[in-house]
Amino acid sequence: MATGRMRRVNEVVREVLAESIGKDLHDPGIGFVTVTGVDTSPDLRSARVYVSVLGSPEEQEETIIVLGESHAILQRAIATQLRMKRTPTLTFTLDHGPEEAARLTAMIDEETGEEE
């Protein structure tokens, strides 16, 4: 369980990354990306970044690869905008939460419609 301090660090890093992905990365391989969360290690050496990508599974994987290749630009954005003891090494992970929520909502709507 993250402490209050780590939750604040995670949220600030998420905000910086979300802004930097939209503003600093101009690669056509990056689809529509939403940074859904960040999980930073307590020693600030690494951070797992959860992203949701709109598109096919191939487009999603391509976006994860391009984000991984662009980690230096994003780490620089963190280093310049935040005063942290260390700048974490970023690892990008596809977040399937929004897709799963949409699927469950569709299933619930389908069941509700059948009962009426």
What can you tell me about this protein's structure?
- The chain is an alpha+beta fold.
- It has a single domain (4-115), classed as K homology (KH) domain (GMP Synthetase, Chain A, domain 3), CATH 3.30.300.
- It has four helices and three strands.
Poorly predicted runs of 5 or more residues: none
Query: Number of domains in the coordinates?
Result: 1
**Which fold name fills CATH's third level, the topology?**
GMP Synthetase, Chain A, domain 3
CATH class placement = Alpha Beta
Give helix % range.
55-70%
Helix-strand blueprint:
Blueprint: H1 4-24, E1 32-40, E2 46-54, H2 57-69, H3 71-81, E3 89-94, H4 97-115
Parallel strand pairs: 2-3
Antiparallel strand pairs: 1-2
What is this entry, summarized?
The chain is α+β, with helices and mostly antiparallel strands. The chain is built from four helices and three strands.
Essential attributes:
globular; alpha+beta; 4 helices; GMP Synthetase, Chain A, domain 3; 3 strands
